[in-house]
Design a protein that fits this description.
8 strands, alpha/beta, disordered N terminus, two-stranded antiparallel sheet, 4 helices, single chain, 6-stranded mixed β-sheet, 179 residues
Length: 179
Amino acid sequence: MKKLFTLLAVIALLASCQTVRVSQDYALGTPFNNYQTYAYYKKGVDEAKISELDKKRILRAIDTEMAAKGFTKSENPDLLVSIFTDSKERVDVYNNNWGWGFGYGWGWGGGFWGNNMRNNVTRTTEGILYIDLIDAQKKELIWQGVGKAPLKSTPEKKVERTNEIVKEILQQFPPMPRN
């Protein structure tokens, strides 16, 4: 029985670890290797409906990841970076049969093992970050990455989560060609 409770605790812990979910879209045939510099698309950044503190967190995280990829900020960039944010309430319902108990009713010997069905409902505010990369010369969107993850409330956790989301999104850039 002790092993069962340990197993259930591990499963519950793994289920509660909510990771960043990411996706990307891009213009096929784009020569991504030709891009080396970037700047922020001011209008896009200014219109993001988040606090100035959160904008700064996102931009710092983008700077870190772009530098790690070999990109440099420039007054005459190849790419313009824009961001868009959104949020939604995510509701998860976990329906399990772990609550078996003894009950009375029909069956052998006047009793049976009944199902004590338990539902766990969790509500989480999930943040959505879009990072758009725009060809600066053509003024065309060439790549978009999207990350979704539960939001955090303390400043330290916000920095940590923002860095994680941006890193996961930009890991997909530049897209790798499929053979």
